[in-house]
């Protein structure tokens, strides 16, 4: 797969080009995967980071004895190659290079039987690392029910890594214990590590050469509780405890989470929070979360539910949240004193109610931004149509109001649809400031009303289509802004458009466009307009046989006649004093 990309920079730096190639192939015994990116020459700052736009990653293996990996990235000064050749069950030769830096190691295996893993084995290590000789071994032995794993590695004739691990396990009792002693760089870094799992408690403990210890304790009761504790030198630095209860039936889903946290002032986490977290650290914190879902009863889009969240910090209320759609009106309430103070929110809580009568109305009240009120209603009316309204208030003052009302007639003789609409906008509203007042082609307004009507006669037709008309009118702040009439229901047919704001952009000073078409089948077709350069045309019979005249802008353009018999067709076209008279 090859992806070519091209991006033109809006700052004028030019065009950035490149490609991404991903290839997966199987040749002979080798499986090869390649990922390569290439960027063309570009003088500016690239959108694709320079760290990844010119690099290559390649993996190659026969899945048995050979493995080769390559990572080349000139931008990051990387030219890494890894080559592994192995003799299964006996040895592995590993060479790692990065430019001039090279590690060349050979691992020779003895007493290692993968079919019978008894923990007894020997692995000899020889080679060089960055030009210095490396020698060592990894060995495994068994003493009763204890497995011992030891590692010794010398680099340049100096002790580099020493590890001694004793492992004891009981699979039936689900217990495990590993005790490790380590020394690195000849003992400059030394200590002991304990890993222990017993009775569903996992303990990780590191003790350094100066007897300073760090310990992590995890206790799990699957599906019920979790306890995590971090200690330093035996003293608790922090704890995290959570308990969960779940009820799941065909009727309801209910979940309760209780969480407790403690944090010592001596811990690095506490110091970090005090320095970087805007609300500071804490000594104790508790969370209580309750979620209830009524599977049997639904709102419009989802089952009815209730969510309660309570957070306390050092005994003081930090967050209280309630979201409840099991009651009417729905309730949303948020109390967060620290958050409100930081963001300058004056009220003690954010309260939102939503009264939803499905298919009829939605009323939302919120005590934010000085008080918001949204009211939407819809319903059928006596004219076979629907009435719809939307009202928004802020601080008790109407910001905008929209109303729609439709009428419909549909019977064997006719179809008629009428739409009435009205929009009232407060100049201080966001709708007016950000949208209506920014109109480029249309004129802003505070009040806009409109009426549109569409009619089709099912009983009467013109030559091709049923007779119809469409008409409409728009008023802005008491002034006519648009009026439309398009009809084939009367003679002559008419298209009339009054729209100064729109037509003024077509031709300065133009306020209306008028077109009429009078059609007398077999006799004449005449179009009239109020356009300056094209006032219309007329095609009509002169009364002399089959003679027709064509006039454009009131002037004769062409005249034509024809004669048709069983054996011939002749015609005569006259333009001014010239004429053309073909005969077939």
Radius of gyration, rounded? 43 Å
Work out the number of β strands: 40
The N- and C-terminal alpha carbons lie at a distance of 65 Å
Q: Name the shape in a single word.
A: elongated
Please state the structural category: mainly beta
Number of helices: 4
What is the subunit arrangement here?
Answer: single chain
User: What integer is the average pLDDT?
Assistant: 90
Low-confidence stretches: none
Major sheet characteristics: 40 strands, antiparallel
Structure description:
There is one protein chain. By secondary structure, the chain is mainly beta. 4% of the residues lie in helices and 64% in strands. Strand 11 (146-155) and strand 12 (158-170) form a beta hairpin. The longest helix is centred in the middle third of the chain and has 9 residues, at 268-276. It is elongated and about 125 Å long.
Task: Fill in the keyword field for this structure.
single chain, 584 residues, mainly beta, 40-stranded antiparallel sheet, 4% helix
What is the secondary structure topology, with strand pairs?
Blueprint: E1 2-9, E2 14-27, E3 30-39, E4 55-61, E5 66-73, E6 78-87, E7 91-98, E8 101-110, E9 121-129, E10 132-143, E11 146-155, E12 158-170, E13 175-184, E14 189-198, E15 201-208, E16 213-221, E17 225-232, E18 235-248, E19 252-263, H1 268-276, E20 284-298, E21 303-313, E22 316-324, E23 330-335, H2 337-342, E24 350-357, E25 361-366, E26 372-380, E27 386-394, E28 397-410, E29 414-425, H3 430-434, E30 447-461, E31 466-476, E32 479-487, E33 493-498, H4 500-503, E34 512-520, E35 524-529, E36 536-541, E37 548-552, E38 555-564, E39 569-575, E40 578-580
Antiparallel strand pairs: 1-2, 2-3, 3-4, 4-5, 5-6, 6-7, 7-8, 8-9, 9-10, 10-11, 11-12, 12-13, 13-14, 14-15, 15-16, 16-17, 17-18, 18-19, 19-20, 20-21, 21-22, 22-23, 23-24, 24-25, 25-26, 26-27, 27-28, 28-29, 29-30, 30-31, 31-32, 32-33, 33-34, 34-35, 35-36, 36-37, 37-38, 38-39, 39-40
């Amino acid at each position: 797969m090859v992806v070519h990309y091209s991006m033109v920079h809006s700052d004028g730096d030019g065009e950035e080009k490149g490609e991404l190639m991903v290839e997966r192939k199987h040749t002979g015994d080798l499986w090869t995967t390649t990922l390569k990116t290439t960027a063309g020459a570009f003088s500016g700052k690239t959108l694709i980071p320079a760290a990844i736009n010119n690099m290559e990653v390649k993996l190659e293996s026969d899945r048995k004895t050979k493995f080769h990996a390559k990572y080349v990235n000139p931008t990051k000064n990387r030219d890494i190659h890894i080559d592994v050749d192995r003799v299964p069950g006996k040895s592995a030769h590993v060479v790692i290079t990065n430019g001039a830096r090279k590690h060349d190691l050979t691992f020779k295996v003895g007493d290692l039987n993968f079919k019978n893993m008894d923990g007894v084995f020997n692995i000899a290590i020889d080679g060089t690392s960055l030009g210095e000789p490396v020698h060592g071994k990894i060995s495994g032995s068994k003493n009763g029910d204890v497995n011992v794993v030891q590692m010794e590695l010398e680099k340049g004739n100096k002790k580099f890594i020493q590890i001694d691990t004793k492992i004891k396990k009981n699979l039936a009792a689900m217990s495990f214990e590993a005790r490790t002693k380590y020394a690195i760089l000849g003992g400059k870094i030394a200590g002991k590590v304990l890993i222990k799992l017993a009775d569903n408690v996992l303990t990780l403990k590191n003790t350094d050469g100066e007897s300073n210890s760090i310990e992590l304790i995890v206790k799990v009761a699957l599906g019920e509780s979790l306890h995590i504790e971090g200690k330093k030198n035996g003293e608790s630095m922090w704890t995290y405890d959570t308990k969960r209860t779940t009820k799941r039936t065909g009727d309801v889903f209910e979940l309760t989470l209780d969480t407790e946290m403690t944090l010592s002032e001596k811990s690095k986490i506490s110091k970090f929070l005090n320095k970087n977290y805007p609300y500071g650290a804490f000594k104790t914190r508790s969370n209580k979360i309750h979620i209830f879902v009524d599977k049997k009863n639904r709102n419009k889009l989802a089952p009815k539910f209730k969510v309660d969240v309570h957070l306390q910090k050092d005994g003081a209320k930090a967050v209280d949240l309630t979201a409840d759609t099991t009651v009417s009106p729905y309730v949303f309430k948020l109390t967060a004193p620290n958050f409100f103070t930081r963001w300058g929110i004056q009220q003690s809580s954010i309260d939102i109610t939503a009264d939803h009568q499905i298919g009829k109305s939605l009323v939302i009240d919120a005590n934010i931004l000085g008080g918001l009120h949204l009211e939407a209603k819809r319903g059928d009316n006596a004219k076979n149509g629907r009435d719809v309204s939307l009202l928004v208030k802020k601080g008790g003052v109407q910001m905008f109001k929209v109303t729609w009302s439709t009428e419909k007639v549909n019977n064997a003789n006719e179809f008629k649809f009428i739409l009435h609409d009205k929009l009232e906008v407060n100049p201080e509203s966001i709708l007016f400031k950000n949208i209506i007042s920014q109109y480029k082609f249309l004129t802003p307004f505070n009040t806009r009303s409109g009426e549109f009507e569409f009619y089709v006669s099912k009983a009467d037709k013109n030559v091709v289509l049923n007779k119809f008309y469409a008409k409409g009118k728009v008023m802005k702040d008491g002034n006519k802004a648009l009026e439309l009439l398009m009809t084939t229901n009367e003679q002559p047919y008419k298209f009339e458009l009054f729209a100064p704001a729109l037509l003024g952009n077509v031709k300065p000073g133009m306020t209306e466009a008028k077109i009429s078409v009078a059609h007398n089948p077999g006799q004449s077709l005449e179009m009239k307009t109020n356009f300056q350069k094209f006032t219309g045309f007329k095609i009509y019979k002169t009364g002399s046989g089959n003679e027709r005249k064509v006039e454009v802008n009131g002037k004769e353009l062409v005249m034509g006649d024809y004669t048709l018999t069983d054996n011939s067709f002749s015609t005569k076209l006259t333009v001014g004093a010239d004429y053309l008279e073909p005969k077939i």
